[in-house]
Amino acid sequence: MNYFEKKKIKDILEDKIDNYKDVIVMGWVRTKRVSKNIAFIEINDGSTLKNLQLVILSPDEHPLAEINRGASIKVKGYLDKVEGREQDVEMKAEEIEIIGEAPEDFILQKKRHSFEFLREIAHLRARTNTFGVVNRFRSKMSYAVHEYFYNKDFKYIHTPIITSGDAEGAGEVFKVTTLDFDNLPLTDAGQIDYNQDFFAEETGLTVSGQLEAELLATALGDVYTFGPTFRAENSNTSRHASEFWMIEPEMAFCNLEEMMTLMEDFIKNLFKFAVEEAEEEMDFFNKWIDEGRRDMIKNIIESDFGRVTYTEAIEILENSDHDFEFPVKWGIDLQSEHERYLTEKHFQKPIMVYNYPKEIKAFYMRQNDDRKTVAAVDCLVPGVGEIIGGSQREERYEELKNRMEELNMDLEKYEWFLDIRKYGSVPHSGFGLGFERLLMYLSGMQNIRDVISFPRTPGSAKF
Amino acid sequence: MNYFEKKKIKDILEDKIDNYKDVIVMGWVRTKRVSKNIAFIEINDGSTLKNLQLVILSPDEHPLAEINRGASIKVKGYLDKVEGREQDVEMKAEEIEIIGEAPEDFILQKKRHSFEFLREIAHLRARTNTFGVVNRFRSKMSYAVHEYFYNKDFKYIHTPIITSGDAEGAGEVFKVTTLDFDNLPLTDAGQIDYNQDFFAEETGLTVSGQLEAELLATALGDVYTFGPTFRAENSNTSRHASEFWMIEPEMAFCNLEEMMTLMEDFIKNLFKFAVEEAEEEMDFFNKWIDEGRRDMIKNIIESDFGRVTYTEAIEILENSDHDFEFPVKWGIDLQSEHERYLTEKHFQKPIMVYNYPKEIKAFYMRQNDDRKTVAAVDCLVPGVGEIIGGSQREERYEELKNRMEELNMDLEKYEWFLDIRKYGSVPHSGFGLGFERLLMYLSGMQNIRDVISFPRTPGSAKF
What sections of the sequence does the record tag as coiled-coil (chains A, B) (predicted)? Predict the structure, then answer.
């Protein structure tokens, strides 16, 4: 038998294969019902949520007793269309071979397991309906990202994971080293001698590919990253993971306003892809995870995103009757409750809040003429608040240097970052989207641990 | 001016924009020639290798004196087709504005810089012809990978970067930690207390996503990874980097032979994509990096890959008149000189060598009935030798466990890996392709440092 002759259940159910055709199907048993003269087995091969029903007309001739839920089998037979049923193809099985047995007490029995329990067996959970769907959805949405940018002629770049930058303000960094902890080399002054480490200096895991993306945008034009990033923060919440994937486009010759237009276009396109190209998965989420999720997504696709300055947003919040836990005044970082009030109650659609106080934003953001705010933007959506953040970058050498000095940053470490402001500097802008946050938003899944196959969180790096 | 009204030089030169149309173009100056009544400037915006020629009819009216090579400018004007010239569109410039100046002694002058020198200024080298091409090529080939697998309904999976596995046999591992080196916690027995580290155990950077890919393949069917992997090996060669991107497909219900068919199909499709969809880049490589490279690639696309067992390959080598540096006998790991003799001299086409001695291959490979060899395959191509390696995996619980015990591996650490052999185990196979090796092969670039934007090698993690 040839790999290429084997048929996937997805193709069978999508009617890509003729009726009565002889086929070979392989998959894992989901259910089995045996009576005297007929037996039914449903199998799944991971290609789709749906199972293929096998009809066995001579149960005695097959090793049905040994086939438990979870076992893998190989089946020869032919397809038979059944009119008037939702899933209108079944397979008349002629030969059944057990490939891999499963014990009668296989851990994934036919019942609802809690997501908490399934996290403990992350090596098996992709065999459940929910996590099969989540994995296929993640794959499709990854492709959506690449397709969007490829068609817009953005260059996909791979920024380094191991970095010697100190990632001012972006969060705690994991150290990367090959030093022997039992025998750490010391300098004459008694300090750890990083000269003897693998890279001859202190290195860590990247918290963002943005700075490197800026270097490449100011050579290639439009670029984007899509890769893993890291935070060594000891926060055990449902929205934080220590390792997650980020999408970071960076555009040369692009100001804040132009970037906001792109941001809106990007979100709408991804959401459209989900609704149109991941129909099965969105059906599932809408039915089992969060009813109404699809309508919410469709509403966003059809909205014109609002645009409002931070200062205006603060005024709206101050003038509202709403009782906020965190008091509102100009200068604060917007809390989730503020963001959600703005997008859900006041505007009732996605909005972009821009021109934030410079004190609460990163050093590389472009200072506005008021000297108080920077050209930063957060895109807020109903149900969650901020989903994407971005900014126009400070492209003026003197302004950037001054700001870095104000913040006592080590200019030498950033020489290359300053350099590109010296040689044909250009206005440029970019934004960052946490891929898992996107998946959670589209699916309604509530815990980031359930949209990554093997999540890394404080105290947990299993599998 | 709107970002979306700005025209990319690529679109202009590909005739996507009408003649005489008013356009705005922004880019970096590559050359400038000024005479009394006319001036010419060539600019590049990173969208293509080619420059756009600007014709300035009243040189006195523009700030030409201040425009040095490397400066960024914004130009308004209209397009004008010029018959009978290779590049038949030029732009009559009406307004020129300097966006970012460059000093007269800008480091990237119009001359050939050595690749060694350009590595020192990796933050600027993407502005050269060669590295612009390399970056765009890398982006296109990345897309080729995703497109190939998406169309074949493989699921793209993100396997973890931080891992607690010990990656038996795959190479040295970088440690990942948040422990304070100046104050390492110790257990009562005086050992480093990893319980107090971030993940409560020793963790490192992944050397391969394969083991996790196996978990997901045995749930989802066909999957692939495409992400960064790491080796903490102190090898300063032109072919090794400490951080590189790997492509690792893993297929359930797939044996060695079927996998070889997929491998051949995969390589041919990627190579075809390069020749057809990255024409500009392949032209450049063929002209400036390695004449004949394109023909070599085309030959491979048209070849039927040979298949030969390791044992047969050893016989061929033993019977040849060739004088090898490393002596040939059954049991040795094939050296580059052996591989190249086989593919270049003997077969004169790509070949797959399979069924290697188990002692020189990894623990997870499926043992053949001869008990001496495993179902491993290396694909060898002219000019380099091995380009892809893969294997059918040991899916039999007892066989795998015995092999791991023979090798004194810590079974407890691999409980999850053994588990999937207990519950509906299936034959499955996969291979791994180093993405940079692929790029080097297609382009003819000789140093891995020149196909990664910001390479990480021993002693070097700058940018």
Answer: 390-417
